[in-house]
Known about the structure:
Radius of gyration: 29 Å
Shape: flat
Amino acid sequence: MTTPAVTHKRTGSLRGASLPKWFPVAVLAGSVAVAVGIGLGAGLQSKAQWGLIAAVLAVLSTYVVAARVEGRRQARDRIATSLVWVCFLVAVVPLASLIWETAKRGVKVLDGYFLSHSMAGVADTQPGGGIYHALLGTLEQVALATLIAVPIGVLTAIYLVEYGRGRLAKTVTFFVDVMTGIPSIVAGLFVLSFWILILKMGYSGFAGSLALSILMMPVVVRSTEEMLKLVPNELREASLALGVPKWRTIIKVVLPTSIGGIVTGVMLAIARITGETAPVLLLVWGTQFINTNPFKDPQGSLPLYIYQQYANSSGSGAAYDRAWAAALTLIAFVMILNLVARGIARWKAPKTGR
């Protein structure tokens, strides 16, 4: 009886065929070239349409080529990666375009004079003037809203995570969720009816801060609550086992551990209220003059200033340039606050090294 011969095929690697590292770049470049050709041939004027065509071609080409060379399993992995990158670009490109357009139009009149002068005695159609009164009003109103909302929001989150049980905690959670979706105009109308019409306190920057704090509070509560939940229970148990009271454990262990996320949540809340116009229009009114007292008389605000200048510009002129410069200042203000918050969070974060 003869035994059939067995042949062994030597292979240089245990891995199957794979595409080179430059394959995604080549597919993207080819898809962009084909999309430009299709756009020019079809007479498409929008660059966004060209980008969408290029994205679809890149995803389809990646799957077809990868399926033939690497197999369908690896092709599905590559197409998932491609979809993630496409979604990332779809989110980033409009943001980058917004910042670029604002910076390009806003730098025309943005200088020291613009930041240090108000619009007193300057007509909307005349050149000159500045945003000092509006910038000062925004800083004071946001600061007052933060002083009101942050302590209440953080203490509410501590109650929900550390102490809250039963119906009261569920009720508080329900109303926090409801407040998250309240439109800004509703918060403004509530403060208008109570603070101004019933209590007769008058229009002021503080009235606007009250409405802004209502919008800010649920964001602070939700973000702080999630950060506190991420603190390991072992840290709490270790502190309590040493005989440390619960309130001191929260102050010395729980809050320092989650301070980075809490500060980030606070900054998100500040970024949300900084650009609100409806409560300011209802409660602060606005003025062309400098008012350093947020508790008395109307006060300027950057969002309201941008709206008024653009509404009176007819798409061109000095007011149009001032509106873009104020928008650029508002974006820079939010960016600076975020950088400061990240610096504070890094400074106050617990040290992990030895």
